[in-house]
Amino acid sequence: MSCLTCGSASQIHPHTQASLGTKRYYGFGAHLMDVAAMYGAAHGGSSYFTHLIQVHEALGLALRYEDATVLTYLTPKKDWEMVVIAEKPSKAFFTLVHHTLRAYLDDMTLLSFSVAMFFPALNDAPSLPAIARIVERGVPASIRSDISAMELFAHSNVDVDPFVAARNMLPAIRRALARDPS
Question: Which candidate, 73, 82, 154, 149, places its Cα nearest to that of 113?
Fold first, then answer.
């Protein structure tokens, strides 16, 4: 999903794009599958995603809600990156995605963002857990682009410390969860 022009939306209103594959993830999803497989092979079959969540929890960069967890990502691609992970798409997963987006809008006044979601395979093929990556994309009124050649072709340029993001985002999501009637 892309929200507003700074979020790379071609229209002013939020909109989404989707893709389905029959054999394998592509792009970043394929990269995650490869990383998880290599990690499991090197660590006696341990789950990359379980350990990723545990590291973030140990650093105070995670919030669990039922069967889902939101991470203030330790190695963000862009400022204010949040990642929601659950074994499968569930009400808790989508609730955390919703409250994370509401925290962007209501608590942080971050109006332009992009969201990418990956879901487990519909068949018995090896697959990813449900993952939502959310990044802030800059001030909508700004004429400056939020992405540079460095970010496109080399390394990410992140100006917001993940620990600062956690101090701001996780309490906002916690408050929203406490108010949630479901």
Answer: 82
Look up residue 46 and give its two tokens: 């341990």
Task: Name the token pair of 109.
Answer: 């006044």
What mean pLDDT do residues 144-164 have?
A: 72
Q: How confident is the model over 54-64, as a mean pLDDT?
A: 98
Query: Does the pTM exceed 0.90?
Result: no
Residue showing tokens 């956690």: 166
Residue 35 has pLDDT above 60, yes or no: yes
Reading the block at residue 61, the tokens are 């960069």
Backbone dihedral angles phi then psi of residue 153, each to the nearest 5 degrees? -120, -5
- The residue whose two tokens read 């507003």 is 4
Distance CA 166, CA 79 (A): 12
Taking 70 as the threshold, does the pLDDT of residue 22 lie above it? yes
Half-sphere exposure of 53 (CA within 13 A, CB side): 17
Kindly list the distances between the CA atom of residue 51 and the CA atoms of 22, 28, 114, 155, 181, in Å, as whole numbers in the listed order.
28, 19, 26, 24, 31
SS (H, E, C) 134-159: EEECCCCCCCCCCCCHHHHHCCCCCC
Read off φ and ψ for residue 65, nearest 5 degrees.
Answer: -140, 110
Residue 7: CB atoms within 10 Å: 21
pLDDT at 72: 96
CA distances from 128 to 11, 28, 45, 124, 174 (A): 31, 11, 15, 12, 26
